[in-house]
Design brief:
Blueprint lengths: L20 H15 L7 E7 L5 E3 L11 E3 L2 E8 L2 E6 L9 E2 H9 L12 E6 H7 L33 H5 L9 E4 H9 L10
Antiparallel strand pairs: 1-4, 1-7, 2-3, 4-5, 5-6, 7-8
């Protein structure tokens, strides 16, 4: 199920529910913690959104051709190791699993410089152990006013903590004063984790 250098199961063996990316990533973190397949401190959960909750991502399975998908938010897993180039785990991407952050930046994130400010991406980076300890979702954001599901929920029970039944908005929020982790602009995120703020120069 797992290669020697990948801490997660293969893509087809991961716990996955369409449109529940935050829970899919929680399950990846839980797997690593349970199996001790990598140091948990190497893993970071990355929420991608903005104040308008309109963020374009390319190379998504639900996209059409070269057109981006406009998400209200998206969640991926980042692995940063001392002897490892930064890797992104995105179960909704057409790119490899995992994918180097450099390639993901060039192909999936691309640049904010050529898109309208309303669509500029921000990224909340949360240590995996903090995410496992604090994240809670009752999945109410996926229900219609009549109580029906917008998309079928995962088969396992909702993720709760002793303190909270639902705090997803605190993770999606790009207000640095709210929630857990650290909030970056796209340029600052790439500068922090790749040493280069220009996605176009990362594809070579």
């Amino acid at each position: 199920m797992r290669s020697n250098n990948r801490p997660t199961p293969s893509r087809e063996n991961c716990v996955y529910t369409s449109c529940y990316c935050e829970e899919n990533v929680w399950k990846l973190c839980e797997f690593v913690r349970t199996e001790r397949s990598a140091p948990l401190e190497e893993l970071f959960v990355v929420f991608i959104s903005n104040e308008n909750r309109m963020v374009p991502l390319w190379k998504q399975k639900s996209g059409r051709g070269d057109q981006p998908v406009i998400w209200d938010y998206h969640v991926v897993l980042l692995q940063v190791g001392v002897q490892l180039e930064p890797l992104i785990y995105d179960l909704d991407s057409e790119l490899s699993f995992p994918c180097s952050l450099q390639l993901y930046a060039a192909r999936a994130l691309q640049s904010d410089h050529n898109i309208k400010p309303a669509y500029h991406r921000k990224l909340r980076v949360v240590p995996a152990d903090s995410f496992l300890l604090n994240f809670a979702s009752d999945r109410s954001h996926m229900k219609n006013p009549d109580g029906s599901w917008k998309m079928p929920p995962p088969p396992y029970p909702p993720i709760h903590t002793a303190e909270s039944q639902m705090n997803l908005d605190d993770f999606i929020s790009m207000n640095p004063a709210v929630g857990w982790g650290r909030v970056f602009s796209l340029d600052h995120f790439l500068q922090r984790y790749t040493g280069n703020s220009s996605p176009s120069s990362l594809s070579s």
